[in-house]
């Protein structure tokens, strides 16, 4: 996928909004994952650089199965940008067991740009 735009959330400046697109294959897998987990309201993105280095970033997909949009705290975004490759693994809680299950891994071709600290008008 590609990161197309990164902005500070206009309604809450502590959040970063990241817009992107995902490949058709990823889009299909992502949609299937959502179909299997329709009641999941909040997703957790686990950002991975190496197998043994993992950090969980809270995010909410705003347009599931379409262009990829999610938000995260600005301080976490800046840390994510500095420390990690552009690989996002989407996890969701299994309804029956309650366990966190991997739904899809999305690899971005380009790293996101560092957003300005003030939202553009």
From TrEMBL:
It comes from the Eukaryota. This is Uncharacterized protein. It comes from Noccaea caerulescens.
């Amino acid at each position: 996928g590609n990161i197309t735009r990164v902005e500070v959330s206009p309604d809450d400046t502590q959040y970063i909004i990241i817009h992107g697109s995902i490949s058709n294959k990823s889009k299909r897998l992502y949609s299937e994952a959502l179909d299997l987990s329709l009641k999941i309201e909040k997703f957790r993105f686990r950002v991975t650089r190496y197998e043994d280095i993992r950090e969980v970033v809270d995010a909410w997909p705003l347009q599931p199965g379409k262009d990829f949009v999610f938000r995260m705290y600005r301080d976490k975004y800046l840390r994510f940008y500095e420390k990690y490759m552009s690989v996002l693994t989407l996890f969701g809680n299994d309804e029956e067991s309650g366990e966190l299950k991997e739904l899809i891994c999305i690899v971005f071709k380009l790293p996101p740009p560092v957003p300005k600290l003030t939202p553009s008008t």
